[in-house]
Amino acid sequence: MSRIGLAIHRFRDDAATTAKAIAEWALSTGHTVCVLNDDAATVGVPVQTVNTFADVDLLVALGGDGTMLRAVQLVGGHPVPIIGVNIGLLGYLTSVEPDHALLAVQKWCMGNCDVDYSYEDRMLLEVVVSVDGSTTNRHLALNEVVIEKSGPGHTVRLGVHIDGAPFTTYAADGLIIATPTGSTAYAMSVRGPILSPRLRAVLLAPVSPHMLFDRSLVLDAAEPVRVDVLGYRGVNVAIDGTPVGELSENGCVDVRAASQVARFVTFEDRHFHQILKSKFGLSDR
């Protein structure tokens, strides 16, 4: 029997309803159901409460892309398969609609890999934030790390090293360092390129650069990036939309491709360009 985790968008009624249906079936068939402490009352049936999903066999994320990002953080770099149920607005990362959520869990529990479902591994970034040479905790990012000005009205100066060599100093509102998965998130809003999530690459995109060189860069996954905060204006650092710290002069952020991956469960051929076409309403002609 499997340990099944449920990551629930607690402000969407459909998420709670779907979670309860999955939990009832799982418990009735001998599986263990785990939820975060704050979500226990949302499910409405007896479940185990946990602080992390690192040791579950399957994690079901019920919400939108934000819930999927949170689910990846909650497995802590472990290759826990994640089924994304689309109870949100965009749904780039989710693969199942609510009406098919229980069937998807049943297929994973009782089916065969590569026949009834398959795994799609997504690249992660390893991010280390340092303040005056003192290193904070290591972070993992599925979408991006954002280094952005903390105050209005002024740019910040960010010195960038690529693969150990100085590249340039950006005068900008900030920098986005993204995965191919993250190329359709914040990086897209600053007109960065859209990359296939099958790639292993690192995208560097400036935010409102005040300089002649305003292009985004696509780097090989083996090329680490270091960003140094120059000057007296501070920056905020966020991982997948979650603030993780503030940096002032001499602070730095080191970013490289992580050895871990995010593992998504899919149930049919999902062609990224067709998902993109659907989300943007593109026509054939």
Structure overview:
The chain has 285 residues and is of the alpha/beta class. The protein has 2 domains: 129 residues, Probable inorganic polyphosphate/atp-NAD kinase, domain 1 (Rossmann fold); 136 residues, Sandwich (Tumour Suppressor Smad4). Helix 3 links the parallel strand 4 and strand 5. The longest helix has 16 residues. The radius of gyration is 20 Å and the shape is globular.
List keywords for this structure.
285 residues, 2 domains, eleven-stranded mixed sheet
Short description:
By secondary structure, the chain is of the alpha/beta class. It is built from 6 helices and 17 strands.
Which architecture of the largest domain would the CATH scheme give at its second level?
Answer: Sandwich
Largest sheet: 11 strands, mixed
Rounded average pLDDT = 92
Radius of gyration: 20 Å
**CATH-defined fold name of the largest domain:** Tumour Suppressor Smad4
- SS-derived structural category: alpha/beta
Low-confidence spans: none
Reading the helices and strands in chain order gives EHEHEEHEHEEEEEEHEEEEEEH
| Strand runs, count | 17
Topology:
Elements: E1 3-8, H1 13-28, E2 32-36, H2 40-43, E3 48-50, E4 58-63, H3 65-74, E5 81-86, H4 101-110, E6 118-131, E7 134-141, E8 144-149, E9 156-162, E10 165-172, E11 174-178, H5 186-189, E12 201-207, E13 217-220, E14 225-230, E15 235-239, E16 242-247, E17 252-266, H6 272-280
Parallel strand pairs: 1-2, 1-4, 2-3, 4-5, 5-17
Antiparallel strand pairs: 6-7, 6-17, 8-11, 8-15, 9-10, 9-14, 11-12, 12-13, 14-17, 15-16
